[in-house]
Design goal:
3 helices; 190 residues; 8 strands; 24% strand; single chain; three-stranded antiparallel beta sheet; five-stranded antiparallel beta sheet; elongated; alpha+beta; PH-domain like
Length: 190
């Protein structure tokens, strides 16, 4: 999640960014993408390097004690490494969890990755409803055409309403562009 930071000199006001959470495509073809993901402090590759160094250190200390006659240190070190490895595996499995929302002309595509599961729902933008599931700070539910999906797990609860408002605004703007494009085509202007 990123916030708009003004780089204008003091005393000058710059226009606010049209999107706080989403990014408009450079091509400008009316497509917008929102990428909502976990804020992970360590990448999976760094996590693997940490665990390997932790294993070497722990097994090195256990070997020193084993050489001095404390043979029970090795099984406890192994149990410790298994427990830490299981915790790190659970963390790594969900480190890449994310929600991707793409608004393109004629479709709204929502992908949600949770662990190894991928859930994908496609909507016609003119039929999408954007509502909180139960209250202002709850997950945002996108529904339409008999399908629904809850999004916003990786956004702080107090910012979910802003995300919902931004989605609604983008959907209304898309509908305005479609109406403008259709009227141009009806008038014979491509």
């Amino acid at each position: 999640m990123s916030a708009f930071i003004s780089t204008a000199p003091l005393g000058y006001r710059s226009a606010p960014a049209p999107f706080r959470f989403g990014r408009e495509s450079a091509a400008g073809a009316g497509s917008v993408q929102w990428l909502l993901k976990r804020n992970c402090s360590i990448a999976p590759r760094q996590l693997l390097a940490f665990y390997a160094s932790f294993m070497l250190l722990s097994l090195g200390i256990a070997a020193i004690f084993w050489l001095q006659g404390a043979v029970l240190v090795v099984p406890f070190a192994g149990a410790e490494l298994l427990a830490v490895g299981a915790a790190l595996l659970a963390y790594a499995r969900h480190a890449t969890d994310r929600e991707t929302i793409r608004l393109q002309p004629g479709r709204l595509l929502v992908q949600r990755v949770h662990g190894s599961r991928l859930e994908e729902v496609e909507f016609a933008p003119s039929w999408v409803r954007v509502e909180p599931q139960s209250g202002d700070r709850s997950l945002i539910e996108l529904s339409g055409q008999g399908r629904r999906i809850a999004i916003g797990r990786h956004v702080r609860p107090e910012l979910r309403r802003q995300l919902a408002d931004e989605l609604r605004w983008a959907l209304r703007r898309w509908q305005g562009r479609v109406a403008t494009d259709e009227s141009r085509i009806d008038n014979g202007n491509p």
